[in-house]
């Protein structure tokens, strides 16, 4: 019976060890871009962006010189990374082109004319000081039409500068803007 009464004390002691002020959360939040491109998408629904496991987790991952991916439980994304990237990408495409791009599910009465799907295969803050971003995106006509379907690969880097979480978050935000520009231009 004595052992059972020690369990709450042990749990209380463990809780005291974790300091919530040491945990930092970083958003993926690029500044809103200004309209600079023609509207080639019209009304488009963006499916949730697919991310690799290390980029989709709550902890901010980075590559060390030995090639390993590491993270620190005290440095977290402010929101679910897939949700955050999806919302920021929709906002950036809309701002850059004037298109109406909304993440799924489509909330408006009139259906979208296009659907966009993005599969990010790599979003890696490398040991070389660059964020490596690659994958593929698809733009298709909504419904049974086959005209205007687009499949494009993307592969680019964004300078990170350091493995600090705020630098990685800033690079991820810049990568979202660069990807939004490519999708808006359908290139």
TrEMBL record:
Residues 29-184 form the ABC-type transport auxiliary lipoprotein component domain. Gene3D superfamilies: ABC-type transport auxiliary lipoprotein component (3.40.50.10610). It comes from the Bacteria. SUPFAM superfamilies: XCC0632-like (SSF159594). This is ABC-type transport auxiliary lipoprotein component domain-containing protein.
